[in-house]
Amino acid sequence: MKTTYCKKSTWTTIDLQESFDPKVPGYWLCRVMTKKKYRGQGGAAGVMEEVLVDADIQQVDLWLHVQPDSSVDVDRLIAWYERLGFVNTDVERIMHRSRRET
């Protein structure tokens, strides 16, 4: 997996970090950021699709902790991640997407 995915035309960046915890194998999405004026235009979805394809090819799990900035609704953001295949865990705002067979 790459550790940074970006699309300059929409000022979208997704950073990943390999998990240090063997109980939580895979990669953590550390930052998903789109400049405010470009939000809602599909930029993050396009970059996230690239991340998901790479994760599927390399058969790795993805993890994230939902921590939006003040301008983003938490429930709306969780619903977006759910549409991308992430599920809530037993830990508040921690979401997981299991590795997929390709």
List the helices and strands and how they pair.
Blueprint: E1 4-7, E2 12-18, E3 27-34, H1 43-58, E4 62-65, H2 74-83, E5 87-88, E6 94-97
Parallel strand pairs: 3-4
Antiparallel strand pairs: 1-2, 2-3, 4-6, 5-6
Descriptive notes:
By secondary structure, the chain is of the alpha+beta class. 25% of the residues lie in helices and 28% in strands. It has helices spanning 43-58, 74-83, and strands at 4-7, 12-18, 27-34, 62-65, 87-88, 94-97. The chain has a six-stranded mixed beta sheet with strand order 1-2-3-4-6-5, with helices on one face. The protein is globular and about 40 Å long. It starts with a strand and ends in a 5-residue tail after the last strand. The mean pLDDT is 92.
- Total beta strands: 6
Cα end-to-end separation? 15 Å
Helical amount: 25-40%
CATH secondary-structure class:
Alpha Beta
| Pattern of helices and strands | EEEHEHEE
- Bin the strand percentage: 25-35%
Structural class by secondary-structure content = alpha+beta
| Major beta sheet, strand line-up | 1-2-3-4-6-5
User: Biggest sheet: strands, sense, closure?
Assistant: 6 strands, mixed
What is the number of helical segments per DSSP (H or I, 4+ residues)? 2
The CATH superfamily is identified as Gcn5-related N-acetyltransferase (GNAT)
